[in-house]
Amino acid sequence: MKWDKLLRFFLLLVFLVCGCTSKAPQEKKIVIWHWMTDRKDAFGQLASRYENETSLKVEFKLFFPPDLYSQKVIAAARAGNLPDVFGILGEKKTFASFVKAGHIMPLTSYMEKDSGEWKNRFYPQTLDVVIFKNANAYGAEAGIYGVPIDTTVMQFVYNKTLFREAGINPHGYPRTFEDFIKYAQKVKTALGVDGFVCGWGEGWLLNALATEWAINLMGEAKFFQTINGQIPYTDQEWIDVFSFFAQLKKSDILATNIATMTNKEAEDAFAKGKAALSFNGTWAVNVYAQLAPDLEYAFFSLPRVSGTQPMKIWGGAGSSFMVNSHSSRKDEAVKFLNWLTQKPQQEYLIEETSNLPAIRGCEESLPSVLQDLLLNFEMLTHPDTWPRNEDSRVIEVLNRGLQQIIVGLKGPREVAEEVQKTKERISRR
Q: Is the pTM of this model over 0.70?
C-alpha cells in the first residue's frame, strides 16, 4: 500500500513537471519585416485577405526610419534570426553579401516555373534590380533573389497652378536645361516663390540627378568607363556635369536652404505651393495627396543637356522582398509573395498607395498623374542593374561636392579634382 502511494506520488510529480515545462505549439505564420510607413495599413489588409483565403497568418512588422531598419536586418543576419521575409536597403554590394552568406533563397526556379509565368508578369526593368547576372562584379551566384512589389521612377514635377498664374502654359513643361531655368525664373519673378526645391540635404537625390545628366551628356558607355577607372572625373564632360549645378545656383531659382533640406521638407514645400518645380520619385503622388489633396501638378522627363545622346531615367524596383533561406516556412513565404504580385493585389496597392506596380497589366488602374510615366520605362536605369557600382566613398565625396557647389563654397573643377583624387586613393589600396 505504501509503495502504491509512492508510485502515485511519483507519477503525479512527473505529470506536474512535464506539464509546467512543456511549451504551447507555436502559431504557424509568416513574419515579414519592412520599413514602408505608407503601406502599413494596406499590408495589414492584404495579410487579412490572405489568411481568409489560405488560413495562413501573415504578420508585417514595420521598423522605421530606414537607417534603423537596415541596422536591424544586418544584426539579425549576424545573429541568425532573420524573419521569413525581409527587404534590403542599400547598395547592390550589400545585397550580394547577403546572397553569398546564404541568407537569401534563390527564386529562379520558382520564377521560371510554368514557362516563366511568374517572371514574365514583371516589367523587365523592375525585375532586373533583384537579379545577379553571370560573372557579376560582386561574385554572387547568378539568379533571381527578390520579388519587387512596386516600381519607382525619378522625375521632375511642376505645379500647374503656379505655371498658369505666371503666364506659362500649364500643359507644357521645359524640355531643355536652358528652358528649365527660364521657366523657374519666370515663376519666381512673377509670383515671388522659389523656382526649384528638392531634398538635396540627402545626397542620393543629388546623385540620381547628376547621374541622369551625366549619361545624357556623355552617354552610358563613357559613364561606365568612369566607374571602371578608364575615364577620370576631371574629364571636361564631368566638369560640365558639375557646372550644371553651378548654373542652377547662379540662376537664383533654388530654395534658400536646398543643400540641407530633407526630402520630406521639400515635398511639404512643393505641396504648399512654395516652389514651382521639384525632382522626386513616384511615391510623391501618395505624399502630395496627403499633404495637399487639391494640388494640381504633373511629372515630366529630365530637361535635356544634350540632344545627341540618349536619355536615361533613374528607376526600377522601388521595394522588394527576399526570402530567408533558413526559414522553416520558406515555401509558404514564396507562395505568399507570388500571391502578392498577382494582379488583384497589385491593383489594391495602386489604389491604396498610388505607387507604380511591379507587374504589367495594371495600367488602367493607375492614377492619371502616373499614366505618362509608363512611356519612360524603356529609359530606366539603376545602379543595381549596372555592371559595377561606384565605390560608396567616391559617391560620398561627389555628393558633398555638389552640395558645396550649390551653396557657392567650391567650383566644378575643384570638386572634380577632389572626386578623382578620392577614386585614385581608393584604387591604390
A: yes
